[in-house]
Structures are given as structure tokens and as C-alpha cells.
Amino acid sequence: MPAISDKGHRMPESPIRKLVPYAEAAKARGVQVLHLNIGQPDIPTPDVALEAIRNNDLRVVEYSHSAGFASYRKGLADYYTRHGIHLTAEQVMVTTGGSEALLFGMMACFDEGDELIVPEPFYANYNGFAVAAGVKVVPVRSTIDTGFALPPIADFEQLITPRTKGILICNPGNPTGYLYGRDEMATLRDLVLKHDLYLFADEVYREFCYDGAEHVSAMTLEGLEQHVVMVDSVSKRYSMCGARVGAFVTRNAALMATVLKFAQARLSPPTFGQIASEAALRTPDSYFNEVIGEYRERRDVLVDGLNALPGVVCPKPRGAFYCVAELPVDDADAFCQWLLEHFSHEGHTVMMAPASGFYAEPGPGRRQVRLAYVLEREKLELALRVLGAALQQYANDPVPTTRVQAAR
Amino acid sequence: MPAISDKGHRMPESPIRKLVPYAEAAKARGVQVLHLNIGQPDIPTPDVALEAIRNNDLRVVEYSHSAGFASYRKGLADYYTRHGIHLTAEQVMVTTGGSEALLFGMMACFDEGDELIVPEPFYANYNGFAVAAGVKVVPVRSTIDTGFALPPIADFEQLITPRTKGILICNPGNPTGYLYGRDEMATLRDLVLKHDLYLFADEVYREFCYDGAEHVSAMTLEGLEQHVVMVDSVSKRYSMCGARVGAFVTRNAALMATVLKFAQARLSPPTFGQIASEAALRTPDSYFNEVIGEYRERRDVLVDGLNALPGVVCPKPRGAFYCVAELPVDDADAFCQWLLEHFSHEGHTVMMAPASGFYAEPGPGRRQVRLAYVLEREKLELALRVLGAALQQYANDPVPTTRVQAAR
User: Fold this and answer.
1) Same structural domain, B162 and B111
2) Residue A86 near chain B (CB below 8 Å)
3) Are residues B132 and B240 in the same domain?
4) Which residue, of A89, A100, A392, B349, has the fewest CB within 10 Å?
């Protein structure tokens, strides 16, 4: 039997997936599972996008251009320009989700063993793309005490080696929800210029900023025209995760030409998803006002509720729809599993993502979880009651199965 | 300015793309270009698939499972089983086109520098996936004299080294249209078993076999349960290239589990494409009878027409919708460019894919072109008249620009 590749062995499993069988078993027992573990919004996709799909009159579902519909690239460039990021269609390439934009970018910029510094905790799938591209992820620690602000510049400098080729940020951040301010972005700019690095900015949550906070795109940093790659996606903006349409954005023409070669090999991004995405550009502002208002309210409900629980600490994020909370437990992985395996309250339990999966080493996230506030207010309130009761019971008697066994 | 990666430099350009600017210029001059260069069928997508898209009632376009809709995987397994390939849903993973299935398979099976033997001429994008995955493609030459039959087993044996980890075939073949017979498949089986290799079989043209020829899937080879990966796609079967839905198929459970990790990193295949693909499973047999009849007629028109041109040799393929022809020219790349730059007949010219792009070295394909018969009969007949006139003129006076320049 032929062997699996080393790369295949090194490829990380989804840190959330290992809990899925426990969630399925809980559901089979009749327990309702409140999913705070995934970033799949319940917000409706804009009508204008859904209608474009329903009204499409294609007779042959053809390949599109490898770089995407020309009209959609132009429309996207105009969208960014309206949001203060001045771009032409040639600087925007349509990809199959933000995932593909990241993978193409890594392959086009980095070689086997090159190092990419990433503030942690970070989106777990960055590890997957890095393994696929042969890139070494070098984490730089941000901490819950600062609300996961950008680590001090000295921490970055300490990690830079001759193999360091780039920095990757997610802004606003998954899993922390942290939004980098203008000062932090200027710090990154100077660092990138000083060491002639690529700056990859995953800005797929750009629209979701709260409390009047301003989003500072890496694309607006002066002097970084050749250095910045912006990764974008329609998944969260229009609650259209399944469309699988993203964008690779750069002003570096040589890099764009290189990425186009990777795009040509896979032929084209999805035609239906592009139809929906191009139509979604006509989404009225009122949609975003409503959605942002909804997320902000949910954030307040969840984060305030978490901080009201004894021993729970959760910085209030100003962007995206995630937060990272520290719990009064020794091992959040075990607690999250216990919630699914052994606990219910009012017929419900809660599924969360243990934060260990968002750190390069398990230590610093050991007591932390990521929660996504993609459920409606009432469900979040219920989830908080369930979590409160669970923490209380877990502190007193973490393994109720011993009682079950004793009773037999 | 940070550097492009070595991998990015090594990534091949599409061999067809370099001619695109000349085709655009020809169109701008008012010349109609007959596209025999690409495998984009003009055949309508089945109504049942298009209707499923138009009638979809999604409110939120969610991620699907990373392995694809469970119902679609089951439906696909049943489809294969009906076609003599007995599979369960767990042995079928939905991918974003056949392209992604190939890339995932290469990454899960092969490491940097591992060798993959591929009969050439071969689908040019295999080079792209190999560069992305760090795999070394080792071509084994098939020749036009045998109609591009499987090369002798001794030729394979000669190429096998300790780094050889697999063989990749396309059956029926792009670009040759060659369909491997039962004997050839048995030869491959023995070779794969003897050296404990993976056998990757790109079978996306499976349905398109002519003259009563039988398609022998690699999945039906006995004793290769752990060795075979089948790559599939809805692109050609249902003329639905833009759906971007394919499948990674294997009975090797460890390999499937590894590929699932790559699939999880990119989250999910496209939702709309899966809706169309699942509905397409209900396509009536009459559709395939019609389409196969249509392609067979086109093949006869094109291949017989080519062989009737002085000095042109074109084996008649029994599958897919391509053929490779040898032309009475020194350099097919130059001739294909000349056709677009300097020639028209009845207001038309012909765009073909120079075969050099389908060989690892330019030599053996120097006088060959790939033609796709994805245009209707009348257009193919016109293309043949245009090509015949072009070959005649090219033989007498290949560069009419000299006349233009002399006249100035």
C-alpha cells in the first residue's frame, strides 16, 4: 500500500472537527446544541443576490475567465474605491473564496521553509494553507490582557530571520474580533518596509466594525504598493459563505501576473457564485446598517453576559463577530467536550471552539474559547444561561458519569 | 520590493494563453475566430440542473460540509455504481472542480521531489498542479504513429526510480482522445502493483466514448483498492464547466481522511454548483445519447476532414472531444500565431492549441496541434476550409506582412 505524503501527515485537522462526533451524539440524545463554534452567520443573504441566481438565463454554464468576470472585477474595484481603497480592475482577481486567495498568495510569494509571522491567536486554517504551500508559520503572541492588541514591535523584530518573508494579519480579527488602529497599522507599515516583507491582510470582516470604529485597510498604507496583498471574500459580507467567491487584491503587477498562472491551472472561479456576488454589489446600504446593528447588539449581549459570569474574562471586540473568552476551567478542550458529552440545561448545551486550535502551541489558549455571535439574541441569552449553569456544575462535579456508573 | 517565489517563477503559463492577445487583435480587425483551441462545449447544460438553480429557495447561502452535500455524495456513489464502479458515499468527496481533486490528491500522496509518471502528450495543467504540489512530472512518450496508445511497459520501467510514487493517466485522454483498452489497463495494474505506486486516473470524459468502445475505469481494476485515485468532474459530462464541481474518489480510507484535511482548510465546495450537480444526476439517458451522437458526428467531420488535407495526419480518437493532428509545418506554435495574426478566409480564421504545451519538451509536439470539436458541424466544416486554405498559403508564402511592407 503506497504511503501518505509527509505533507498529508502534517496537514492539521480542523480544531473544531474533533468535537463534531460529540455534538452529533448529543443531538441523537435529544439535546439541542447551540452552535457558538462556527462563523456561519444566520443573517439572510441579500435578496438582490438570490434573485440574480433565480433569474439567471444561462443555457451553458461556461468557464469564466480565470481571473473572474471582467464586469465583476470592475464592480469590485469600484466598491473598494468607494470605501477609500483606490483600485483598478486589474488589481483585483476573483478567487474561489478567500481561502484560495490565501493559498495562491502564499505559493506565489513564499518558498518551502520561508517564514511568515502571524499574530496569535489566529484563524486555524492559516496553518493548513501554510502546510500546503510549505511555509513556516511563526506566531507572535498577543494576549487577552491587552484585548489581543498588536504585539510590541520588539516581539516582531526578535522573530525576524533571513527566512522571514512576510507578515499575515486578520483585521478585524478571527478569532479575537480585535480591530487594529491607525497607529498599529503604521507600526506594521514601518516594519514591513524596513525588512522588505510582504504584508498579507485578511480583511474579510472589513464591514463589521462597531462603536464608530474606523477600519484601516492595509491597502491604504503609503509606500506599500508592492508589499501588500489583501484577501477578501463575499462569505461574511453578504452572508454567502457557500458562494465560494473571494478576491486576491494587490497593486504589485508582477505578483498579480504570477497568481494568475495559479488561477489558470484551476481554470476559473465558480460561475453561479460570481453571478450572485456581482449582483450583491447592488445591496442597499440599509442592509449593512441593519446587519451591523444586529451584530453589535449580539456582541453586547454575549460579551457583557460572559463577563457577568464568575471567573470569565472576555475583552469586548470592535470588529468581526467573534470573541475569545478565558474561562475558570483548567482545560477548555476538555470542558467543551464535557459540555457536549455530559451536560444539558433547559434541554440545551453549547458548542464552542477551544482556543488551543488558534495558537501554535496549546499552552496559552488552554483556558480560552472562541465564541461566534452568529445566532439571534434570544439564543445567545439562552446560551449564556446554559454556560453559566455548566461552569457552576463543572466546578463542583465535572464528571457526572461517575454518578451514573455508581448508580448502576 | 519583495521577491516572487521560485515556485511562482516555475509555475507554467497556460500554453494557450500566449495566443489570446493575437486572437483579440484578430477580432478587433473584424476577423471571426473559430475556437478549436479550448474544451468549452457549446452543448446546453441539462434543463434539470438549470431549473434546480432557478428554483432554489435558499435564504442563507451557507457553507456545505467540507466533503460536499451528503445527499450528493450518495447520489454520485449510486451513479458510479450504476456504471459498474461500485462505491459508497464515503469513498466520494466533492471538490471544487476536477482541478482541486488533482491538487488535493497530489498533496496528500506526494512530497517535494517525488516523481509522477505521465504519458505524454498530457493535459497541460497537470504541470501546474505538480509545481504547486512540488511534484516532479516524468513524461513517458506516446506517439502519433500508434494513435497515442499506452507506451510499452519497458518505457515505464526504465523511468521508475526510488522517488517514483505514482502514475497519472487521463482516460479518455485530453489532448489525444485516446481510450485505453482492457489490456492496457491490465498492464498499468500490474505495473502499479509491482512497484506499489498510486494510480491517478482522470476520468472526466468517461461518458464520451464512441463506436461502441467500452470505458474501463481504473476503479474497476482488481487488487488496486488502496492504489487508485479517480478524478472526476461535472464540467464536461453536463456541459457545466462553470459550476466548479468535481470529485475525489478512492477506496483508500487513510488517503480519503488525509484529503479531507485539505478540504476542511478551504471550508467547502460551491453550494450553487452542488445544487446543479445533484439535480444533474436526474439527467435523462436521452440527453447523453444525443450528446454522444453529436460529438461522434463532429469527430468524424473534423478528423476525416483533417486527414483529407494534404500532409495532415490525425488518428481517429475513440473518446473525449479532442484530437491531436500533425501538420505539414515546421513549427505549429508559429503557424497558430500566423493564423491569428496574418490570415483569414471567408472572413474567418482558426484558433488551435499548439501541442508543444502538452509535452514536457517542445520537440515531439513541434508540428502538432490539439483541436477540440466542441463547435457545431457547420462551423467545423468552415474551420476545415479555412485551415486547408491557410496551409496552402503558408506553404507558398508564410509571411504576407513582407508583401505589406514591400508595398509601403
Assistant:
1) yes
2) no
3) yes
4) A392
* Cβ A43 vs Cβ A241: under 8 Å: no
Considering CB atoms only, which of A2, A242, A265 is closest to B268? Answer: A242
| Helix or strand holding residue A402 (H, E) | helix A401-407
* Chain A positions in Cβ-Cβ contact with residue B97 (cut-off 8 Å): 266-267
DSSP, collapsed to helix, strand or coil, labels residue A234 as coil
- Nearest residue to A177 via CA among A391, A372, A22, A20: A372
**Chain A residue closest to B225 (CA)?**
A1
What's the full length of chain B, in residues? 408
Query: Residue B61 and residue A240: Cβ atoms within 8 Å?
Result: yes
Q: Do B244 and A244 touch (CB under 8 A)?
A: yes
Same domain, B182 and B257: yes
B408 occurs within a structural domain: no
Indicate whether B167 and B133 sit together in one domain. yes
pLDDT in tens, chain A (408 residues): 899 999 999 999 887 778 989 999 999 999 999 999 988 889 999 999 999 999 999 999 999 999 999 999 999 999 999 999 999 999 999 999 999 999 999 999 999 999 999 999 999 999 999 999 999 999 999 999 999 999 999 999 999 999 999 999 999 999 999 999 999 999 999 999 999 999 999 999 999 999 999 999 999 999 999 999 999 999 999 999 999 999 999 999 999 999 999 999 999 999 999 999 999 999 999 999 999 999 999 999 999 999 999 999 999 999 999 999 999 999 999 999 999 999 999 999 999 999 999 998 878 899 999 999 999 999 999 999 999 999 999 998 766 554 444 333
pTM, two decimals, is 0.94
Is the CB of B166 inside 8 Å of chain A's CB atoms? yes
How far does the CA of residue A227 sit from the closest CA of chain B (Å)? Answer: 7
Q: State whether residue A273 sits within 8 Å of chain B by CB.
A: yes
Taking an 8 Å cut-off on Cβ atoms, the answer to whether A107 and B241 are in contact is no
Q: Domain of A369?
A: 6-44+286-399
Q: For position A62, which CATH number holds?
A: 3.40.640.10
- B161 reaches A (C-beta below 8 A): no
CB within 8 Å of chain A, chain B residues 323-342: none
Cβ within 8 Å, pair A111-B40: no
Query: Residues of A with CB below 8 A from B2's CB?
Result: 109, 165-166, 196-198, 226-227
Q: Are residues A38 and A57 in the same domain?
A: no
A14 contacts chain B (CB < 8 A): yes
Residue A320: left if φ>0, alpha if ψ -120 to 50, beta else—which one? left
* Contact status of B187 with chain A (Cβ, < 8 Å): no
- Tell me the helices (H) and strands (E) count for chain A, helix number first: 14, 12
Q: How far apart are CA A69 and CA A88, in angstroms?
A: 14
ipTM surpassing 0.85, yes or no?
yes
A378: cell is 434570544
Is B216 in the same domain as B143?
A: yes
Distance CA A269, CA A262 (A): 12
Please give, rounded to a whole number of angstroms, the shortest distance from the CA of A140 to a CA of chain B: 21
> Is A251 touching B (CB cutoff 8 A)?
no
Helix axes B377-396, B332-342, angle to 10 degrees: 100
Q: Which residues of B touch A125 (CB under 8 A)?
A: 264-267
Report CA-CA distances (Å) from B144 to B39, B153, B301, B319.
Answer: 21, 17, 20, 16
